[in-house]
Amino acid sequence: MKSLKLSHEATGLPEPPPGDRPLPTRRTLLDKLGIGAIVASTVGLGYGFLRSLVPNVLYEPPRRSKIGSPERFPEGATYLEESRLFIFRDQRTFQAMSAVCTHLGCTVKMVTLNQPQTVEVRGQRMQEQREFHCPCHGSKYYGDGTNYAGPAPRPLARYRLDVTADDGQLVVDLSQPVDRNFRLTV
Q1: With a threshold of 0.85, does the pTM exceed it?
Q2: What's the mean pLDDT in 3-21?
Q3: Is 107 within 8 Å of 118 (Cβ atoms)?
Q4: Of residues 115, 94, 123, the one with CA closest to residue 131
Q5: Cβ 64 vs Cβ 154: under 8 Å
Q6: DSSP label at residue 47
């Protein structure tokens, strides 16, 4: 089959000036718009994915905070609800222990025992006057924070305490867990 080439004279169209390109057809215009839309949507999706990996705001309480002067805390245990923290005072010695259960993060409750109990923790016999009980799933901790019943996988955390130089307040640092033998003497 022979292809027919019609001259501009036969079609009645004016002849394009020499060196000019023919005007784009509707098909080429739609092809370019479609490719441009695909590229733009791919770039937009990629940007949205990468941007989702970076948080806008971090809603966490500060890890280091002042909790008050040493005189504020009476002998024994004081619960700080805003920090979910127990502060223990024995004369001039202070300790900070978390009130967050190590199982699923519920707040443990301190239970004062009617009679002191003698328990063995890590080969040492201790007199316990209090325990901590988790109301969510039944985990139980001795007074020193050692877990002994329920699904809790580890003891309650202990945190570093310091005294500020400027106003003498106690400062707890929740980013620095300490050994259970850590004590701050004021």
Answers
A1: no
A2: 63
A3: no
A4: 115
A5: no
A6: H
